[in-house]
Amino acid sequence: MMEEFSKDGRVEAAGLKAGMGRKTAAKYLRAGQLPSALVTPRTWRTRADPFEACWSEMAERLSAAPELEARSLFEDLLERHPDRYHGGQLRTFQRRVKQWRAQEGPAKPVFFAQEHRPGEASQTDFTWMSELGVTIRGEAFVHMLCHVVLPYSNWEWGTVCHSESMAALKRGVQAAVFRLGRVTEYHQTDNSTAATHELGCGQGRGFNEDYLALMRHLEMKPRTIQVGEKHQNGDVESLNGATKRRILQHLLLRGSRDFDSMERYECWLWEVFEKANTLRRKRVAEELEVMRVLRVDRLLEHREIDVRVTSWSTIRVKRNAYSVPSRLIGERVRVRVYEDRIEVLLGGVLQLTTERLRGEGGSRIDYRHIIWSLVRKPGAFARYRYREDLFPSLVFRRSYDALCEALSTWRADVEYLRTLNLAASTMESSVEAALATLLGNGELPLADRVKERVSPPEETEVPEIAAGEVDLGDFDSLLEEPRGDALEVPA
Fold first, then answer.
1. Of 41, 63, 326, 340, which has the fewest CB atoms closer than 10 Å, so is most exposed?
2. Which pTM does this prediction carry?
3. Residues 360 and 372 reside in one and the same domain
């Protein structure tokens, strides 16, 4: 408007081109200032303060107990003065409390920004990934990520795990340092039980011996944060959220959240980390220049324990029960305990690999290991301690319930165990399909009926091939002198 007025000195024309009336344009021309400069702060209330009468009491209570929340104070106020206040005034009361805290409240803790030095420390944290909705062959995959970060460059790496265990921490840290080929001076974690434990003598939390051994092997110094001060591990904490958002975006680009196996999923995650780390190439190079070269071999990522197989054909590992082939009863076997699985060996030969259970007091009983004995002793099934593990799927459970409704308990047990024996000797999927068909037709799933529907595997005919006689004289021709018309190869 002022620019247009300077051209021809006409207030009305300048105002029209600026989209304002003549009087408004004349006002701003007289003032010689922009509209924003003419605004003066308001120092008065536009309406009466509804809490003026009780505010002195509220301020006293807040001073005595600053941790009181505005909502709790307001609900108490409503209870004592229902005729004076109503629920619609909550936001007004919360603003008043917020203003009091800013002007008269207690001092708040100050966080001091830190400058990270290249190659000084790496930080590790565990974070849940289940909210991403990843599935393995259609089943929800509940898991965590062991997340390792270099705070200076934000270089990151991660491994899939199921709990905050020492095995998961060892695998995650080693995966990161062997990927880099170098190590930092310090390695920092929070106070998770994977790295620390309660001393119980007023000295806070100390490091586990297994964790100290890992740090000594990798030639890094262990460092932890103060109890309850997770912001001290803030770099990896903040990257947890950013990493999950990045992974979610790549899942959307992929078009599917389902993977064939955990290994395929983890390899895909590593590709995501590689793409993210390429954007940090310059600062990563600065860190690598000052980090020490990794000069050791990778530690085994499992713990070995020796246990004896009981007469129940089970072993106990980490307070959980696992079944093993009955031929191992009475033998002392060696168990390798990984973060996600256990391996059973006898004389150095692998006998069994099974998924590791979480927590304590659980059981993983494979009916194939015991069905041969149980089918000969059907009376033991009724009160078998691990009976619920002998229903491989819901279809098998429904079949047993149908047998119990139509037959006596003993007869139902016999029929079901015969069916389970059939699944062990043929294919479980074929038996399950036969059971589903019988139940769908309203037929009782007796073992003989199931057997009729389970087609035996087709025998493959091996063709007879006559072996020809070999004339060794053919090989002599290979040693003969080359013919004259053959190409001569220069010496």
1. 41
2. 0.63
3. no
Inside any domain, residue 109: no
In total, how many domains does the chain have?
A: 5
Same domain, 213 and 272: yes
| Whether 185 and 327 share a structural domain | no
Beta-strand ranges (E) seen in 33-138 are 121-128, 135-136
Radius of gyration, CA atoms only, the chain: 38
Q: Which residue has the tokens 């917020």?
A: 98
Q: Find the CATH number of the domain harbouring 137.
A: 3.30.420.10
Residue 403, domain member (yes or no): yes
Residue after which a domain boundary falls, among 274, 293, 312 = 293
Q: Residue 104 CB: number of other CB atoms within 10 A?
A: 10
How many CA atoms lie less than 13 Å away from 460 in the CB half-sphere?
1
Return d(Cα 144, Cα 243) in angstroms, integer: 13
Give the domain extent around 444: 367-453
The string of DSSP letters for 120-169 reads SEEEEEEEE-GGG--EETTEE---EEEEEEETTTTEEEEEEESSS-HHHH
Q: Cα(166)–Cα(299) distance, rounded to whole angstroms?
A: 13
Residue 350 placed within a domain: yes
Q: Specify whether the CB–CB gap between 165 and 246 falls below 8 A.
A: no
The dihedral sign for the CA sequence 258, 261, 265, 268: negative
User: Domain check: are 310 and 400 in the same one?
Assistant: no
- Output the tens digit of pLDDT for each of the chain's 491 residues: 777 777 777 888 888 888 888 888 888 788 777 776 777 777 667 778 888 889 999 999 999 998 899 999 999 999 999 898 998 999 999 999 999 999 988 888 776 666 788 988 899 999 999 999 999 999 999 999 999 999 999 999 999 998 888 889 999 999 999 999 999 999 988 766 666 665 444 445 678 888 899 999 999 998 886 544 444 455 678 788 999 999 999 999 999 999 999 999 999 999 999 999 999 999 999 999 999 999 999 988 888 999 999 999 999 998 999 999 999 999 999 999 988 889 999 999 999 999 998 888 899 999 999 999 999 999 999 999 999 999 999 999 999 999 999 999 999 999 999 999 999 999 999 999 999 999 999 999 999 999 998 866 566 677 778 777 777 777 777 776 554 444 444 44
Examine residue 335 and state whether it is found in any structural domain, yes or no.
Answer: yes
Distance CA 159, CA 134 (A): 15
- DSSP notation for 356-380: PPPSSS-EE--HHHHHHHHTT-GGG
Count of positions (residues) in the chain: 491
| Closest-CA residue to 395 (of 419, 412, 421) | 419
Q: Are residues 91 and 231 in the same domain?
A: no
Task: Note whether 261 and 351 are same-domain residues.
Answer: no
Same domain for 202 and 336, yes or no, is: no
